[in-house]
Amino acid sequence: MDHQNSTRDEQQKVLTKRFDLSGNSVIRQLSIWFRSKWMIMGKMDTGPGLRNLIIMALLHYGGKPLFTLRNWWQSRYRLRARVKRLLGRSV
Amino acid sequence: MVEPQTFLSQSALIEAGNRMVEQVDVVSFDLFDTLVVRRIHNPDLVKLPVARYIAKKAATVNRVWTWNQVQLLRDECERKNRAQSAEQYPDAEAHYPTFMRETLKQVFADHYSEAWLEDVTSFELKTENTMLVPRARLLEWLKSLKSAGKTILVISDMYLPAEHLRVLLQHAGILKYVDEVRSSADSCRAKASGAGYDLIADELGLDRNRWLHVGDNAISDGFRAIEKGLQALVLHDSEESRRKAIVARYYFFSRGRAYWKGRALQQLMAPLEAENVPRSWMYQEGYNFIGPILSVFIQTIAERCLQQGITKIFFLSREGWMFKQLWESIAPTLYPADELPQIEYLYVSRMALAGASCAHQGLTLENANIVFLPPGNKDFRDLCRIFALEIEPLAPFLDQYGITRETVLSPGHVGYSIDERVKFNRLLNDQDFQNEIRQQTADRGEALRRYLADSGFFDHEHVALVDVGWLGTIQRFFFESVAHYDNLPSCHGMLLGATRGIPYKTVPKNRIEGLIYDKHVFDFASSSILFARDLFEEACRAPHATLNGYELDGDTYRLVFREMDDALGQAEQQQDDYFAELQSGVLDAARRFGPAAALLSDPAGGYKPWINYLLVSKLAFARRKEIRKIRHLHHLDDFHGSHKPKKSRRPRFVVNPWEDQGWRGWLGSVFQGRLYRKHLRSMINH
Fold it and tell me: What residues in A contact B579, CB-CB < 8 Å?
């Protein structure tokens, strides 16, 4: 009972800072996927597919530096090329 | 040419904006992807529910259109509208009322009236509202600018006119801080060409040198603004790009593999920005685990009702309290153009209906066997307690057949003898005994009839009876209580899980179906729900006392509820408080489920693989911490007696951790695979 109360007091966001579901992360899906390779899990249609799970794990866990770099690159270089093309001048 | 300042986060933009704020009197904001973000990655997907709505409405006036045809027509009308604008104005902007009117005129033909346009516009704005979320930090900054005396403008390049944008801003709670809302749809002068800035500056007499514009598009919100003499800040938020990329991937995967449909749905349901505040464990489990399962259950009910022409749904107490609220949140959003069945919460319980079921048919052997299924029931006294029978008038019959009230009738108890049981079975064939039972329970049966007549039960041809499950005993007793009435409707029992421990007597007017789990459907994964049945019962249970029975009260009837001031009642109230946050999470999830499912437009069956995954991962392979977190404190059932059954000869060391919190349960949580294999074996063997 005491332990139940202590766990109840822990606060977390429903959508984590990785944009994943709290209590049901992509890592958990991966662990169930691995288990399903050596024991029957039941009907989950075709399942998630390892490639898809890896992509999602990358986006959730490695997405922050990737997208920071991508957006910086876009605003620094790609945008200039687009402005040159659209407005006919360089910046 | 001066390059606009670009920022990769809201906080960096606000910091830079605060440094400039002294030099400006007017601050204008772009709307979409700046002040508000959409839950979905592609704004065009919001148009699809509108196309479905129009197609459904067209069908009501016998105009046959598929939603794809409606969408193509809308795109075509919008394209023509843009082309016409481009001939006269600098920007090829569309005007929603113009192209939507043209679309609806072609769809509805002679049936068209302006009321259709108003109806569709209202639906489109409602759909947009469900998908829009104000950005918390920018909104806070906007409020501080407003309180500092700045003029706040919202400028959008959008086909919706300013009048419609005001509706969206009102819903997002932003309109009260905004002085002027401008849309390119009204003037066909947009930010994209820069003509929009000129028009606003001229009409409002603004000093361009003291005007700061904030937006997300580097060209129209950045370079064009600077070109027109404004100061500009561009937000190129990397975290928002990441969020959208994640939604886009889930959506893309969900179109190829059914497993991801449910995951994509949950991503769209998730709270964003200021909605996403820290919550307790209980709330999270309600929102991310129980909520989606129950919401899919409700969607399945809605599908069955629409397919089978069911005109009224009775949500059976006490779990029906939660189901009814979920229905009210989900069904109108998911089926806006359909005529949904009426709904009613019906006060029933196994204890209340057991007595009423004897009023016409007497006490059957099958029903007596149901009483002796729970290990706590042992003898004739338990039978009388459940069927609300007075034992004294029945004592002479017991003596006649050579059994006593203490004779053990349940095989799970010490002292059970097959000979004694045979005597009891013979007693059930005695017509005088049965007449005495009918006489004792007649009032209960009549009171139930009056209650059902009052609830409109007999006014429909097809009704649904919705309950959590598991054996379908409530519906069995219920149907047996009313089966002899001529105006009886067909009863479609819809259960969360149907274990069918006792064969259910299915007849054309009475059948049950487990919508998430049904023993008659071979599905290992969904059978994981059996690991924690009590969890679902307690998560859905209404915070009111259980019903003890129906009584006649003059010309009417009276519902008799259990007293809650004893130890069991107090324990139930403690359980109510303990699960209050979990129930709140479930209800909040359901509010988001409707709009998200309407956008994806998948049938409930499409989410089944994901629901199965949730059941397996969160119940069969639950973490020890999770079990401690969401396991109920108390689960009360008056149907179960208080006798102790004989101990099993074979000791069990690994047991279901949801049922045992001791060391055996701990072993169960360590050897989950073994426990799951054992569960699968029992599913195959039984």
Answer: none
What is the CB neighbour count within 10 angstroms for residue B375?
Answer: 15
B313 contacts chain A (CB < 8 A): no
Chain center to CA of B487:
33
Closest Cβ opposite residue B616 in set A22, A32, A75: A32
> CB-CB: which of A10, A56, A79 is closest to B249?
A56
Taking 50 as the pLDDT cut, the residues of chain B under it are none
CA–CA separation, B532 and B657 (whole Å)? 9
Contact check, Cβ <8 Å, B680/A24: no
Contact A48 B236 (CB under 8 A): no
CB contact under 8 A, A46 and B259: yes
Residue from A8, A14, A61, A90 whose CB has the most chain B CBs within 10 Å, to mutate: A14
The answer to whether the peptide bond before residue B318 is cis (omega within 30 degrees of 0) is yes
ipTM over 0.90: no
**Cα-based distances in Å from B114 to B70, B104, B119, B321, B552:** 18, 9, 9, 40, 55
- Assess contact for B298 and B266: CB atoms under 8 A: no
**Cα distances (angstroms) measured from residue A41 to each of A37, B356, B533, B658:** 9, 43, 19, 19
For B654-681, write each residue's pLDDT tens digit: 788 888 778 888 888 888 888 888 888 8
A84 Cα to chain B: minimum distance (Å): 11
Report the C-alpha gap between B360 and B199 in whole angstroms.
81
Name the A residues in 2-61 with CB < 8 Å from any B CB: 3-4, 7-15, 19, 21-24, 28-29, 32, 35, 39-49, 52, 55-56, 59-60
The string of pLDDT tens digits covering residues A26-68 is 999 999 999 888 888 877 878 899 999 999 999 999 999 999 9
3-state helix, strand, coil in chain A (%, to 5): 65, 5, 30
CB B590 within 8 A of CB B329: yes
Other beta carbons within 10 angstroms of residue A88's beta carbon come to 7
Instruction: Name every chain B residue with its beta carbon within 8 A of the beta carbon of A62.
Output: none
Probe site for chain A from B41, B259, B529, B612 (most A CB atoms < 10 A): B259
- Enclosing H/E stretch for B443: helix B431-454
- What contacts B630, CB < 8 A, 6 or more positions away? B281, B282, B285, B535, B582
**pTM exceeds 0.80, yes or no:** yes
> Which residues numbered 651-680 in B keep a CB inside 8 Å of some CB on A?
673, 676-677, 680
CB atoms within 10 A of CB B166: 17
A&B contacts, CB < 8 Å: 178
DSSP-derived secondary structure letter, B173: T
Buried b / exposed e along B587-604 (16+ C-beta atoms within 10 A): bbbbbbbbbbbbbbebeb
Inter-residue contact A36 to A60 (CB < 8 Å) = no
Region for B204 from its dihedrals, namely left if φ exceeds 0, alpha if ψ lies in -120 to 50, beta otherwise: alpha
**Strand partners of residue B492:** B464, B511
Output the pLDDT for position A4: 47
